[in-house]
Model the fold of this input.
Amino acid sequence: MLAMWSKARELAELTPPERNRWVDFLRAVSILAVVVGHWLMAGLYIDAAGELRRGDLLSISQWAHWLTWGFQVMPVFFLVGGYANQVSWAATTAKAGPDQAGVYRDWLASRVQRLITPTFPVLLLWAALALVMTQIGLPRAQIRMATEAALIPVWFLAVYLLVTAFTPIAHRLWARLGWGSVLLFVPLAMLTDWLTFTMKVPYVNFSNFLWVFLAIHQLGFAWRAGKFARPLFAWGWFVVSLAILVRITVFGFYPVSMVSAPGGFSNSLPPTLALLALGMMQVGLVLALEPLGRRMLKSVRIWTATVLMNGMIMTVFLWHLTAFVLVMTIDWLLLGGWGLGPVPGTGEWWITRPLWIAVYILALLPMIGIFARHERSFGPIRGGRTVPRLRAVLGVLAICAGLGATAGLTIASPEGVTGVRLWVIALPLVGAALMGFGPVYRPRQRPGAHEMG
Done:
């Protein structure tokens, strides 16, 4: 870790003065909030009969639903993604000059590779674990619970890749419509909820994965264009969005919880208008705080920590629940469930949370040491050539379908010899092959690994 800190410090000192450090800070903080939120919400405990139970803080503590307004920060990541994707796309097209042939293919392949490279190790490891656990005769329900818990994060990547692929169109929409390109998606999200909850149209609600997050992604364009430069405007945006959120949740139809919780439908899987309102509120808040945050990030230590976190951000995100499952498995099998007596939500349970989070961090550190290199190095696209546009698009769709099925169905199969849904594992691999790269990469150090791209 000392070597990683030294490298991050070196990169931090090379940061150009025009860089918006608040973008990188928000990216790091949003992922850390998701990690801590997952570690808090998922609570295993031993009941009076001595059986291991899967507890859920949200099902036990109603007041904890309000915590999700702070821990459900995926909208912030899409805001940062909109800013970063526009920076990257504008720089790529400007560099290409008049000859734009193949620019989108190359740009998309590069973005997908940077996101999918760290994903393959955790996906393939859990496929192998599910296969081994099936062969040694562990109950398939337990195998499913473990793989489902560990691979929850991949749903986000499927959506983010789709939104990223939309960047050139989003760029043109912003250039032509400005704020109208944001407002375009709001009625689509409202219409989707009306069709879902009033007209009972099945499956249409999944389209809100696009409408909600495209609207937030588009706000990243507005941010880069300086539309939130005046703190008074950003604070006004925050207050109005908060009022709307309170009206439609506390005094309205939507649940207060912004993640899946017992006793109601989910505001996040798929997203609803309430999650869009939450995202709008969070956008106003973080951009109102930007002037203060940018002054804070002039501190070399804070900026170095931000650079370090951004250099391993996908590894932390993808492996944090694997660390959780590993700790719980070792505790249950080797230590007899030591420390798992408190029921989630009780005073004793809350007092022990800092200790457990420290244990999860210790379990995560070796995974960071082993797998973070996949974020700092990739091999070249095979043959150094671009692939046809249709093939690139099909590759992205296959990757997204595979990741979506991993999160929605899990890779564990209730039947069959292997105990693994092989087609779910195969889809991302086929998609990567279509795009010209695979799951194994020749490490090549990139000096600007922390840079926003």
